[in-house]
Write a structure and sequence with these properties.
The protein is an alpha/beta fold. It has 3 domains: 159 residues, Isopropylmalate Dehydrogenase (3-Layer(aba) Sandwich), CATH 3.40.718; 110 residues, Isopropylmalate Dehydrogenase (3-Layer(aba) Sandwich); 30 residues, no CATH class. The protein is built from 11 helices and 12 strands. The strands form 2 sheets. The protein has a 7-stranded mixed β-sheet, with helices on both faces. The longest helix is centred in the C-terminal third of the chain and has 26 residues. The protein is globular, with a radius of gyration of 20 Å. Homodimer. Probably interacts with PlsY.
């Protein structure tokens, strides 16, 4: 299977993407990785020409400051757009990018193409939970506004993803809300609730409050992109603040430093549970091809895990499964 990586996307590009490609190629022999980007910058990072890794030259780069739609339309030879075109034309079964989120969403819509029957594709990252199962949350930022029928499609796509990629027989689908009662919420959630309740093929468990997400209240969390992105950034910020406070407290005296040394393995394990690098990336569900969004500050390990994620999705026929579910065929 062929996976294209936008080698120039991300805060630590291109080094992190080359490192991740090398790690992935060493681990899985059934993949071929195409690094898309400036060949002059990429070639020196590949000291020995590794097997199953090649370079596709792209002369332009979409930066984090670029306006998404203009950049995708004007920078047709950018690494992101070229990778998207490779998926569209069948040269790659998936693409991974840690670059500009808005530009990647635009590339998905304008270059890869939206799946027939899907009104709005959704960004679906994994949020870690205390039971280590995790929850797939969508949409967490692809679309700031949504209609009730969009949330119903998110529920279907998320349920298929957890079934195909994670092997869950009956994923529990929850609707992010301010209370568990069916009548709670704003106009969007009130209208979406009966749609989800009557949607065949999913196991709807009702409303889920934000405080219960990390407790594993559901396997798929459905929300609009505005509320979802606030949830995601709040969780990331809280985790960062918590570890900063712990570091501050453990640095106060010799006694606390000794205590920190004794607890270090457990603290590392706790940090690992909340580390986005372990999950790799977030798929953009609802497109005519597999597109995975890596975190902007991804390192080599995160890119490798994004490749793992894409590999499993390709093996399980995720895109075709979602298309069949949406079309009802």
């Amino acid at each position: 299977m062929r996976i294209a990586i936008d080698a120039m996307g991300g805060d630590h590009a291109p080094g992190c993407n080359v490192e991740g490609a090398l790690l992935a190629a060493a681990e899985w022999e059934d993949i071929e990785i195409i690094l898309v980007g400036d060949e002059e910058k990429l070639s020196p990072l590949l000291k020995e020409k590794p097997k199953r890794i090649s370079i596709r030259h792209a002369s332009e780069v979409i930066s984090g400051e670029d306006e998404p739609t203009k950049a995708v339309r004007r920078k047709k030879d950018s690494s992101m757009v070229v990778a998207g075109r490779m998926v569209k034309e069948g040269e790659a079964e998936a693409m991974i990018s840690s670059g500009n989120t808005g530009a990647l969403m635009t590339t998905g819509l304008l270059v890869v193409g939206r799946m027939e029957g899907i009104a709005r594709p959704a960004l679906a990252p994994m949020i870690p939970t205390l039971d280590d199962v995790g929850v797939l949350a969508l949409d967490l930022g692809a679309n700031m506004d949504a209609k009730p029928e969009h949330l119903a499609q998110y529920a279907m796509m998320g349920s298929v993803y957890r079934s195909k990629v994670h092997g869950m027989a009956e994923p529990r689908v929850g609707l992010l809300n301010v209370g568990t009662e069916a009548a709670k919420g704003n106009e969007l959630t009130k209208a979406a609730y009966p749609l989800l309740e009557n949607l065949s093929g999913i196991r709807f468990v009702g409303n889920v409050e934000a405080r219960d997400v990390l407790m594993g209240a559901c396997d798929v969390l459905v929300c609009d992109g505005f509320a979802g992105n606030i949830l995601l950034k709040t969780l990331e910020g809280t985790a960062g603040a918590m570890f900063a406070l712990l570091k501050q407290q453990f640095s106060k005296s010799l006694k606390t430093k000794l205590g920190a040394a004794m607890l270090m393995p457990e603290l590392r394990s706790l940090k690992g549970k909340l580390d986005y690098k372990e999950h790799g990336g977030a798929p953009l569900l609802g497109l005519n091809g597999l597109v995975v969004k890596g975190h902007g500050s991804s390192d080599g390990n995160a890119v490798k895990n994004a490749v793992r994620q894409a590999r499993i999705a390709i093996q399980s026929g995720l895109v075709d499964s979602i298309a069949k579910e949406i079309s009802g065929k």
